[in-house]
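User: Teach me something about this protein's shape.
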Amino acid sequence: MLSVTKPVEGQIEGSRPKASGKSIGSNRARSLTWELPFWFSLSVWSLLPSSKTPWFEIGSIPVSSKEMVSIAVTAFYVLQTISSSMVNQRFLSSHRPVTRFRKPWHYLLPTFTILMLLYAAISVIWSGMSPRDTTAMLYTLMGTASALLLGYNLIAKRSAESVRSFLWWVTVFLAGIGLLYSAQSFFSLGLRSELGKQLWDATDFGMQRVRGPLFASSNGYFILIPALAFCIQETIQNRAGRLFKLAVALSLLITIIGLGSRAGLIILGLFFLFLIFFLKGRQRFFVILMVTVITIVAAALVFSKARTDRLQSLRDDSRAETHRAAWGIITHRSIIADIFGSGYGSYWNWYLEEGHVKLYDWQVVDRRIWTPFGRMLYHPHSVLLLLAVEMGVVGLLYFFALWAVLARILLRNLRGGSFSIFTSGVVASGFSMFFGLPLFKPSQLQVNALWWIFLFGALALINDTRPIARRIPFEHLKNAHV
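Assistant: First, the predicted structure itself:
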């Protein structure tokens, strides 16, 4: 994420030369051009209805064209990063060496994730799946890696200013898409097919739950809460355009509440608790007052039409059964199985179950798994359960490493970090891993990529004052010719 540059003659080491308005404009234009593939794929995911999405088969495995577009975009940015790194190395080799500092250990997170995915791919050897299910589940690992690499490479080698600008436009995009999805749910604009209404609309919320091609009602909060946190952070730190930023925050809150997700409201409440705990002095009073007012307005708008029936109970018998059965599996298998895991997909080979093949049987097929320890849902609805049951100690070590990074962010907030609001939202959203299966599902590849963008963006911003070495802004590196 960080790079090295040679200081300009006469420039104090660590400082940056002032750029003219013309050069700033040209740098922004080049950065936007470089980002176009990402914005194109994000627009496709956000606006193309699932009923209009072409599907095709690769080795008898149904694959969505949306996922293929995102994987192709990931390949573009990975190749671009490799090319830029080669240019950077040539630049360094022709200039005098500069002092390096040790990288923070959490910058190894992408490496840890790829190693975990490689282990998961190896573990299918003893998972006992059919050849077709094995191919399908290996494809899910490719989607997980793609989301990680897309998120990382869109943040890597950017200056702090560029990271903030990029995250802001991602936030505005999500607010706009959320407003569109919310309008469909409120006013029934006819953007959904009859089949989509029958399969997904709950009768215990009083209205169509907010959702769309980009995110579902059950997972939208995973990216909307970090976006909300970043919007609030920008509103506090920069007074310019504050009214527009408040409108963006209101749109995001309307969307989050309109999801009708109990887990989403729990995560939102956790984010508010983090704000109360980590903010100090006058800033805490102003932020809490602002967030309270916007939340009341958003809730009043949503519940002017929606009902609270489905939000009055957190009971979920199917998930409770899954947890009990998973614990029974872990406690009754051999020590070797606990160490190495049962193998990726050994219990939850879920891709074909929820894929295009079963779409029209969604409500009539019993999709539970029967085990000697009880019934389980067709996928674990928990990243922790997946890693513990199917990948054993290796999976748990990765989960702890990921949460060590998130915990480090929270500890930094205790020391009064400059981006404590934003990082609180990112960490709060991470608790979704206990309620669902983010990061692994190809059907939410772009959602996963956006979450990685927010996480790596948070790491880049809070570590900007502790560089590995002097930075070379992304725009300069990208256009370097040696």
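Now, about its shape. Strands lie at 55-58, 61-64, 369-371, 374-376. Residues 21-314+385-478 form one domain. If you'd like, I can walk through any region in more detail.
User: That's plenty for now, thanks!
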